[in-house]
């Protein structure tokens, strides 16, 4: 017989892909893949530049929320939380900067550690990893967009990829 573990968090159901928002960046819509195989979440970022602000490590980067579009691109500055060696699905290790950002996923907000990487060749601008999901999410791999979809006009900017 096995024992069922009870979580202290409420269990929120999420699909394998979701439209999420990043309130700290004022990004209302970005399509994310829910990836239980990844420990840390990852965000498509480019023009990544580290700098010093009052003795602390900071990073400036740009985010394009829409695939194949410059529309609504934002410039972000935030403290560097950490640096980590991350192994890609192809087995290649790379050191990435880690920042902390709030993610709004299926009507709940969680603070997550997010690595910055160039995801231009990937199908999703963002991955949501296990560290963020363990705060009370259950993933249904047969479902999508349980938190709703971006408005139609916003999805058009994403060239209908929803």
From TrEMBL:
GO biological process, one term: proteolysis
Segments forming domain Retropepsin-like aspartic endopeptidase: 14-146
Gene3D superfamilies: Acid Proteases
InterPro entries: Asp_endopeptidase, Peptidase_aspartic_dom_sf
MF term (GO), any: peptidase activity
Pfam families: Zn_protease (PF05618)
Native source species: Microbacterium algeriense
Protein name from the UniProt record: ATP-dependent zinc protease
Alphabetical keyword list: Hydrolase, Protease
């Amino acid at each position: 017989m096995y024992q069922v573990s009870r979580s202290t968090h409420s269990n929120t159901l999420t699909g394998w892909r979701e439209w999420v928002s990043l309130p700290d960046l004022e990004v209302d819509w970005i399509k994310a893949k829910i990836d239980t195989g990844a420990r840390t979440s990852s965000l498509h970022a480019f023009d990544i530049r580290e700098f010093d602000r009052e003795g602390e490590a900071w990073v400036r980067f740009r985010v394009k929320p829409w695939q194949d579009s410059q529309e609504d691109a934002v410039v972000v500055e935030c403290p560097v939380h950490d640096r980590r060696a991350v192994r890609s699905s192809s087995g290649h290790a790379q050191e990435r900067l880690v920042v902390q950002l709030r993610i709004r996923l299926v009507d709940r907000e969680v603070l997550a550690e997010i690595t910055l990487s160039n995801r231009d060749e990937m199908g999703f601008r963002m991955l949501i990893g296990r560290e963020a999901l363990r705060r009370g999410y259950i993933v249904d791999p047969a479902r999508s967009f349980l938190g709703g979809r971006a408005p139609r006009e916003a999805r058009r900017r994403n060239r209908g990829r929803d």
